[in-house]
């Protein structure tokens, strides 16, 4: 098992903070700055919008395909 640097609780927190801070520096450094449409915030917003549209489209299809089975049975018994 690897040795503990600070404590068993603080080590993962320090690792997560370091990773987030490194990614922030990567996105904001003038030499490595990404175009606006490729930044993480915009990519997450695009993905959420895409999934929201897919869910809405799927709900519309389900609403269109929804059949009232009581009516179908009533018509079949006539």
UniProtKB/TrEMBL annotation:
<protein>
    <submittedName>
        <fullName>Uncharacterized protein</fullName>
    </submittedName>
</protein>
<dbReference type="Pfam" id="PF11654">
    <property type="entry name" value="NCE101"/>
</dbReference>
<dbReference type="GO" id="GO:0009306">
    <property type="term" value="P:protein secretion"/>
</dbReference>
<dbReference type="InterPro" id="IPR024242">
    <property type="entry name" value="NCE101"/>
</dbReference>
């Amino acid at each position: 098992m690897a040795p503990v640097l600070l404590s068993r609780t603080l080590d993962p927190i320090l690792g997560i903070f370091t990773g987030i801070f490194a990614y922030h520096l990567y996105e904001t450094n003038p030499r490595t700055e990404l175009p606006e449409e490729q930044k993480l915030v915009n990519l997450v917003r695009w993905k959420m919008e895409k999934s929201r549209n897919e869910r809405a489209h799927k709900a519309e299809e389900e609403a269109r395909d929804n059949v009232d089975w009581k009516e179908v049975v009533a018509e079949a018994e006539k």
